[in-house]
Design goal:
Largest sheet of chain A: 3 strands, antiparallel
Strand order of the largest sheet of chain B: 8-10-7-11-9-12-13
Oligomer: heterotrimer
Strand content of chain A: 15-25%
Chains: A alpha+beta (104), B alpha+beta (753), C alpha/beta (224)
Strand order of the largest sheet of chain A: 2-1-3
Number of strands of chain B: 30
Shape of chain A: elongated
Largest sheet of chain B: 7 strands, mixed
Helix content of chain A: 25-40%
Distance between the termini of chain A: 46 Å
Structural class of chain A: alpha+beta
Number of strands of chain A: 3
Helix content of chain B: 25-40%
Largest interface: B-C, 34 and 31 residues
Radius of gyration of chain A: 23 Å
Number of helices of chain A: 3
């Protein structure tokens, strides 16, 4: 029978690392105005049925918060947004740079 | 590292009032606490208290129901593995076996219907594939409150979306089931999910922690704070005052489940593991204790090694979290590297978190302190076992009606009355079109017309020829509310009949017994009665119970649901490619009713009875005649072999007229032979033990000839259908089918946006 | 076993219909598809590729988007450039549009729900080979998808029509696709994409239509 002392050898303790954040960006992605968004439409219809009759329009957007370890140019971020985070045929995006907190 | 673990975590020792609060929040009674102290011979740590709370909850220990469940027949020539494992396993043909089980996820689905239903599907899939079975079909049996009642449309929409999104993403077809609406579920919906998987008889895996020195791997998604005490929540009623309990809902990721499924099957194919167990209700706790209990070994866990996605989780949380899509695998040290390679390929989180010992204890350390240190056996052996008091429910006083049901029926416009009879309770297309029922290329018949589903399984390594299975899941809860024993018996027969109607032979069942508060003697009585009814039907039909689940405390503010013993049945089909559907249209055909020679109608709790709004005195349910059922099922089997039969649909509570319309899919020119004075009841009342059979006109004579040999049953010509047209001719009135169908479809479409 | 397999099937994490396609091709044409895992950087020597249905990467970000960033994508582009044949079914069609190998994009169904049902498709391509193989005007092939609404701007649509790139259209549009488009081909016609599942209407021993076979036959006649 193994003693507890021996079990202690098998597993080293587990530690979580904290990383340095150099840059933060917020990217909002939404459908282009001409595209029908059935989800937004369903939400609008539900709310109107509930009595919120003054709602004129609802747009649903996705927001990506990027935390980057190294410095990147705005061009890099534009490339990311245009070619990867959105489908340019149907979606548009808005990029906003955020302040980073002082790192620990 | 030379760690000597002698330090223990602090014990839960407090002054009585504070201790009582802690115990109450863990739903541990004083009696339980005394037992805990005697088992441990010391006060428990907080983590240990959590373990007892979860393992001794109703959901995990079946403390109120265990004593009754013993009455189920569980053995048979087809049964390979009965209740007690993650799923039941039956032999279909040669070495081809089917693992299946039904589980409930009622309480979480009421709180978060999308995630509650989705994680219900995820959980039952894991139960099946951790036996080593590749899942091939999903079923679900849903019960919601009245369509017009506040939350019902929202609950229905999101439960269906949750099941659809999860099952479709994992790529398992959702092929059959049932969805009913009834006021008794206004405060407690039911979401029962069933999964079936195929496997080779010699390659069945069990959740057993075998082999001292073997390693325990955690694999799947990282652990978070979801669903802590989900098991305890499922073991309690809702009431308006307990808002804060409503946070223990788990979140599922079907993509991860798919990765976990493929990785597990790959690992089993490569023979890399000796035991598997999924982490479901009560998370790591129940998995580890169940595995150790089955093998009679012990487990040493290092909770520091559990992959987490949240910082700062306590050992209590690590033991009890119900984060989804996680499994434990037992592996021999020599296979470690190969196992890890498979996990890396599928991008799953994994870590070695423990070893199997011979201590017969479960020991768990966290940050150099021992938080759990207890023997496995007493936890299981000394789990509370209740023999709760039972009291038969008193029948409510009978009021003699002022008018006969026939008078009431004809008070309204006939077309309107028929619309009411057909609508309301059951919903089909709008719901099942949201489930992918064809992925896998095995589906022959899906749930059109509300019948059973038939799949063709072809696994040359297990059986040289393709094998057919028929699946169905349903319950006659209104009958059970009336007479729990006969109602439960009729429920089993109903599901059996929908399977026989396709041409298959019922083999075995799984069940999910959904009831109210067992602390109420009348509810406990109805539970016991239902169990006896199921046991009786299973003996008569030769279909043992191989797995199952119990869900109690389905009650809100003191109001319980109807007793709902959901039955999930599997049948074997010799010729699946020619399985009979429950619908037929676009042709000319004749419809016959095959029913008992006498006492074939039932008014009590029937669809007709409810449509007329309970204005009838209570009557006794017309019982099943088991010999007549045997004769009719033999007749169906012989007749199904004729390719000329177009469709067969089982009839029961709904009645002949609505079933006929569903059979014809609300199209065609339907001429019925109903006469007000002679056979009105046959068309409108509930039928016991009935089948509607559709056949081409030229086959009429030889079919009636066959029917002459029947002794306990009879054939009645019900309708003549022509493919061109859009009318129902009933009692000399012509009713437009198009507008009828339109009204019914609108009703269900309104539930979904 | 057919050792010199000419057709490969790309398998992504989350692909569901790969085994269905394998079964269909084996049962009907006795062809063994070569399975290629998405992390491969090159393709074996094959003449045709199939991108199967399913939920690659859980359909996260956008259906087919993450799969279009997979390591195997470069090899798929090479294959397309050389004129190799590709058939994208359902999720496969989504991956082809996301990687710009086919025009358009697939959006959420207009009724905002998953839909699984039999559909009637109208054969729309005027090409002689297509009409020789797909001889019927109407094909019965089922759909099963949540993001199947085809969208392309006006100019793009005009190009599709002018260049005979529309393969199939829905008789009763189940998802709001623009111009009822159910499937399209690339300009050269070597890349085909469609939302309906031809492999589900192909096996003979099902109580279902076998019209899907014609689509698979057309793909094979172009590839081999």
């Amino acid at each position: 029978m193994k003693s507890r002392k021996e079990y202690g050898k098998i597993f080293p303790p587990h530690k979580l690392q904290r990383n340095h954040v150099a840059m933060k960006y917020k990217i909002d992605v939404a459908f282009k105005k001409e595209i029908l968004d059935p989800e937004a439409r369903a939400v609008e219809q539900s709310l109107r049925k509930k009595g919120f009759l003054s709602i004129k329009n609802i747009t649903i957007a996705k927001t990506f918060f990027l935390e980057l370890e190294d410095k990147n140019t705005l061009e890099d971020i534009e490339n990311l947004a245009r070619n990867y985070l959105t489908n340019p045929l149907s979606e548009t995006y808005v990029i906003q740079k955020l302040d980073t907190e002082p790192s620990v | 590292m030379n760690q000597v673990i002698t330090k223990r975590a602090p014990f839960v020792q407090a002054e009585p009032s504070h201790l009582n609060t802690i115990l109450a929040s863990h739903k541990i009674t004083k009696e339980d606490h005394k037992n805990i102290l005697s088992i441990l011979e010391r006060p428990p740590t907080l983590a240990e208290l959590g373990v007892f709370s979860a393992m001794w909850s109703e959901h995990c220990s079946y403390k109120s129901s265990r004593v009754h469940l013993k009455k189920f027949p569980t053995k048979g020539p087809h049964v390979v593995m009965g209740p007690g494992e993650n799923a039941g396993v039956i032999r279909l043909k040669d070495k081809l076996c089917l693992a299946f089980k039904m589980e409930s996820h009622n309480h979480p689905s009421y709180i978060d219907p999308y995630q509650g239903a989705a994680t219900g599907v995820g959980g039952i899939l894991r139960d099946v594939f951790c036996m080593g079975a590749r899942p091939v079909a999903l079923l679900n049996a849903l019960r919601f409150g009245e369509k017009s009642h506040g939350k019902s449309p929202w609950l229905c929409e999101h439960v269906v979306k949750g099941i659809g999104d999860y099952g479709n993403c994992v790529g398992i077809p959702t092929v059959a089931g049932s969805t009913h609406f009834d006021p008794s579920y206004n405060g407690n919906i039911l979401v029962n999910a069933m999964a079936c998987g195929i496997l080779h008889e010699d390659k069945i895996f069990t959740g057993s922690a075998a082999g001292v020195g073997n390693l325990i791997y955690y694999v799947g998604a990282a652990t978070g704070r979801d669903g802590i005490h989900g098991a305890t929540m499922a073991s309690a009623s809702f009431d308006d005052t307990k808002e804060e309990e409503k946070s223990a809902v788990q979140v599922g990721d079907p993509f991860f489940e798919k990765l976990l499924l493929e990785a597990t099957l790959e690992v089993l194919e490569k023979k890399l593991v000796v035991g598997l167990q999924d982490m479901g209700a009560a998370g790591l706790t129940s998995s580890v204790f169940e595995m150790a209990s089955r093998a009679g070994t012990g487990v040493f866990l290092d909770l520091n090694q559990v992959p987490t996605r949240t910082v700062g989780m306590s050992p209590y949380e690590l033991m009890l979290s119900e984060s989804q899509e996680r499994m434990l695998m037992v592996v021999e040290p020599k296979n470690k590297k190969e196992l890890e390679a498979v996990f890396q390929k599928w991008d799953l989180a994994y870590n070695k978190i423990g070893v199997i010992t011979d201590t017969k204890k479960v020991e768990a350390v966290f940050e150099e302190r021992l938080h759990v240190d207890m023997f496995v056996e007493p936890l299981v052996e000394r789990a509370p076992l209740y023999r709760r008091p039972m009291k038969p429910r008193e029948a409510s006083p009978c009021k003699s009606p002022e008018e006969s049901w026939q008078t009431l029926f004809f008070k309204e416009n006939l077309a309107q009355m028929i619309t009411k009879l057909c609508g309301g309770r059951v919903a089909h297309e709008a719901i099942y079109e949201q489930y992918d029922h064809e992925v896998g290329l095995r589906t022959i018949i899906s749930q059109e017309g509300g019948g059973a589903s038939v799949l063709e399984i072809f696994e040359p390594s297990c059986s040289p020829q393709p094998v057919g299975i028929a699946l169905a899941a349903n319950c006659l809860e209104n009958y059970c509310g009336f007479e729990p024993r006969e109602g439960a018996r009729q429920s089993v027969y109903k599901v059996a009949r929908s399977i026989i109607a396709t041409g298959a032979t019922p083999l075995a069942i799984t069940d999910c017994l959904n009831f109210g508060n067992p602390e109420i003697p009348e509810i406990m009585w109805s539970f016991s009665e239902a169990v006896e009814g199921i046991a009786q039907a299973c003996e008569e039909l030769g279909t043992p119970v191989v797995s199952g689940n119990v869900s109690l405390y389905n009650e809100t503010n003191g109001k319980s649901i109807l007793p709902t013993p959901m039955i999930g049945m599997v049948g074997l089909h010799d010729n699946p490619v020619f399985a009979k559907r429950a619908v037929c249209s676009g042709k000319d055909f004749i419809v016959y009713l095959l029913s008992y020679k006498e006492k074939e109608t039932n008014l009590a709790a029937s669809n007709l009875w409810e449509t007329l709004k309970y204005q009838l005195p209570r009557q006794v349910l017309t019982p099943i005649q088991s010999e007549a059922e045997e004769e009719s099922s033999n007749f169906i089997r012989s007749v199904v072999k004729e390719e000329t039969i177009l469709a067969i649909k089982d009839v029961d509570r709904e009645g002949v007229l609505p079933s006929l319309l569903r059979l014809c899919q609300f199209t065609g020119d339907i001429e019925t032979f109903c006469e007000k004075e002679k056979n009105l009841e046959l068309y409108l009342a509930g039928i016991v033990g009935g089948y509607l059979i559709a056949l081409p006109p030229f086959f009429e004579e030889s079919f009636e000839e066959k029917g002459k040999d029947l002794q306990k049953n009879k054939l009645t010509k019900i309708a003549c259908v022509k493919k061109e047209g859009d009318e129902l001719i009933f009692l000399e009135e012509r009713i437009s089918l198009f507008s009828l169908k339109d009204k019914l479809q609108k009703e269900t479409k309104e539930l979904f946006h | 076993m057919n050792t010199s397999s000419q057709i490969a099937i790309i398998v992504y994490p989350g692909s569901n219909c790969d085994r269905d396609c394998e079964r269909a091709f084996k049962d009907i044409f006795d062809i063994d598809l070569l399975r290629v895992w998405h992390t491969e950087l090159s393709l074996p020597k094959v003449r045709g590729l199939i991108l199967p249905g399913g939920f690659s990467y859980g359909d996260y970000l956008r259906s087919g988007a993450l799969a279009s960033f997979s390591p195997i994508m470069n090899a798929i582009r090479e294959h397309a450039k050389k004129g190799g044949s590709i058939l994208g079914i359902c999720n496969g069609f989504q991956i082809l549009t996301e990687s710009r190998l086919l025009p358009g994009t697939l959006l959420r169904n207009s009724q905002n729900q998953f839909i699984c049902k039999k559909t009637k498709l109208i054969s729309s391509k005027k090409d002689s080979l297509w009409n020789k193989v797909v001889s019927e005007k109407v094909l019965n092939i089922p759909v099963a998808h949540k993001d199947g609404r085809y969208y392309l701007d006006e100019n793009g649509l005009k190009n599709l029509e002018d260049n005979d790139q529309i393969l199939l259209t829905y008789e009763n549009n189940p998802n709001g696709s623009v111009n009822d488009i159910a499937g399209v081909s690339s300009l050269c016609g070597n890349i085909l994409g469609m939302m309906p599942h031809p492999e589900r209407a192909a096996l003979s021993n099902r109580q279902a239509s076998t019209d899907g076979r014609k689509i698979l036959e057309y793909f094979l006649s172009r590839a081999l």
